[in-house]
Amino acid sequence: MVTVAEPADVRRQVRRAERRRRRLAVLLVAPLAVFLLLTFIAPIMEMLRRSVVDTDLRSAWPRTAAALADWDGKDLPPEAAFAALGQDMKQSVAARTAAMVARRLNYADTGARTLIMTTGRKVAGLDAPPPSWREAFIAIDPAWGERRTWAMLQQASGPLTSFYTLYALDLRRDADGSIVAAPAGEAIFVDILLRTLSIAGLVTVICAVLGFPVAYLLANAPARVGNLLMILVLVPFWTSLLVRIAAWFVLLQDQGLVNEALVTLGVVEKPLRLIYNRTGVIIAMVHVLLPFMIMPLYGVMKTVPPQLYRASLSLGAPPTTSFLRVYLPQTKPGIFAGVLLVFIMSVGYYITPALVGGANDQMISWFIAFYTTDTANWGLAAALGLVLLVATGVLYTAYQRLSGARGVAFG
Known about the structure:
This protein has 411 residues and is mainly α. The chain has three domains: 1-41; 56-157, no CATH class; 190-410, MetI-like fold (Orthogonal Bundle), CATH 1.10.3720. Helices cover 72% and strands 1% of the residues. A two-stranded antiparallel sheet has the order 1-2. Strand 1 (171-173) and strand 2 form a beta hairpin. Helix 4 (79-95) crosses helix 6. The longest helix has 43 residues, at 7-49. The radius of gyration is 31 Å and the shape is extended. 28% of the residues are buried.
């Protein structure tokens, strides 16, 4: 006799099996998720946190930060604020933390380091508190009698700040707390961001133009020829990036192979400048990133049925019309994937522009590395990274919307 399960029992068994499948999937993915969290996501979040955290002054001068918390900024702060600064400065000099505050304030005003260190030494030399800390500070340096000096201290009192983010956008706060444009000589980061995006966009366009016919040849060539060409495309992945860049030094220098060939053939009269400028950066980046454009295109083109293109030709459509109306729309996913991959990789390039480019060709990643390692200004480095991340996210969103709209139009 065969027992037939009730429908309710069957549903419970199905749900139980589904839960087991989900738990197994979670257990399989969990090690990778934890690894990415600890080695990738957490460090990035910690770095970005530094763009809005400002605790140097608060930790070294807690009395001053507390005294300036309620200051309205309309006039000089009260005597209590001067007294708090005197006590904090005396203790910070003894604890050797005054340099940390001086370095932070020097980001906002290049003369602040000298002001803090000079005043700190003189305050530390006082045997007893003066009758008036206000008069004592102004006597040491008239800058202590200016409202902008105290506004700078208040804006650096933390614990959260918009200073680094505004600085990365070429903006500042004046003594009244209003956001104003940076002076002409200091407004560089917006231009650097635009330069980064323009170089990345140009490299992406060139890679798309060069990569499409190569991918088409790979996808439609006989297997024997296609395999050989695929090996040639993959060879750069097996070669060190520094080796490839060094090769471009040999090729592009004034007496390099490229210029020697151009002069010998009579194309130019004298060697062209192809290195340590934007031209060298574009050439080297295209060479490095071209395989990342070819591979997505090749993957999609291999799935396109060739019968459709031949059918359109047999129905009387010209080759150009058949290509543009039948074949090209089916390769859009590969084009979009390749463009997105190459562009996102381009905006973060550091080594190639640093070695092949000139002073006016460095991208924003070079400045992030500079402020991280050379000046230890992690706040500004994090803010530049945040600006780049937001700009890339905005462009990615716009690109997705445009690609989706075009997909509907082609459909």
